[in-house]
Amino acid sequence: MSEWLKICPLEDIPRLGARVVRTAQGDVAVFRNAEDELFALADQCPHRGGPLSQGIVFDRRVSCALHGLTLNLDSGAAQAPDDGCAKKYRVRLDKGVVFLNLGA
User: Fold this and answer.
1) Sequence-distant (≥ 6) Cβ neighbours of residue 33 within 8 angstroms
2) Which sequence spans correspond to the domains of the chain?
3) Which of 12, 18, 98, 100 is least enclosed by beta carbons within 10 angstroms?
C-alpha cells in the first residue's frame, strides 16, 4: 500500500524553487513552478550527481546548477541532446499542504 508523507505547506516551497526532503531512499527535491505545479525528483543530477534542488526551475523543467543539464520535471528525463534520467516521485497538494509518495 502506498503511503503519503506530509511535507509542508505549499508556501514553504519557493516559486521557481525547491525544497529538499531527506528520506531513507536519499534526498528528494520537491519543485514548484510559476503556475504552482509540484514535481518531485531524486535530488541528484544524472550527469555528475549535483543537487538538482539548487538548479533553475522554468516552465516544467529544471536546469542543473553545476553543468546546465536540463531535466523534464514531469518525467525526470534529460532534454536532448543530453541523456540520463532522475528518479521521479509522486507529489500532491491537498488543502494547501504538500504530500510526497516514495512508493513504486
Assistant:
1) 15, 16, 39, 57, 58, 59, 60, 73
2) 4-101
3) 12
